[in-house]
């Protein structure tokens, strides 16, 4: 299957399993398997048992795909993540398509912590200059605050 459907449906319209599979570029049987593994996926059923997915269900499936295929998580690890961080964390998972659409760049930042040593984290940096300036000023402010806290003797 794995083909994108160019439907004229409204953005909030329900989608069939074929449409969802085409949009996410996966096979329908994968979606049915994920339904059996993740209780959070509950499509509505029409007459004859046909599945209809809400936009929220599709966002959750997109997040699951990002973790399983993009981050190479196991199903068990995704279940643990849902338990620890909640369904909203999965729904909010960024993916390459949305990052590209919104012009987001990955940026590597190295932070020195006194108790754990150096840590490297990756953040998504928005492409607009105004947002970059705002984020950079926030980083500078946090660095100054950290220096003030380290300068105190009781820390």
What structural keywords apply?
two-stranded antiparallel sheet, 155 residues, Multidrug-efflux Transporter Regulator, Chain: A, Domain 2, 17% strand, 5 strands, elongated
Structure description:
By secondary structure, the protein is α+β, with helices and mostly antiparallel strands. It folds into two domains: 15-93, Multidrug-efflux Transporter Regulator, Chain: A, Domain 2, CATH 1.10.1660.10; 104-151, no CATH class. Helices cover 52% and strands 17% of the residues. The strands form two sheets. A three-stranded antiparallel beta sheet has the order 1-3-2. Strands 4-5 form a two-stranded antiparallel ribbon. The protein is elongated, with a radius of gyration of 21 Å.
Describe what is shown at a glance.
52% of the residues lie in helices and 17% in strands.
Largest sheet: 3 strands, antiparallel
Order of helices and strands: EHHEEHHHHEEH
At the third CATH level, what is the topology name of the largest domain? Multidrug-efflux Transporter Regulator, Chain: A, Domain 2
Low-confidence stretches: none
**Portion of residues within helices:** 40-55%
* % residues in beta strands: 15-25%
**Helices and strands: which structural class?**
alpha+beta
Q: Overall 3D geometry?
A: elongated
Q: How many distinct beta strands?
A: 5
CATH architecture of the largest domain: Orthogonal Bundle
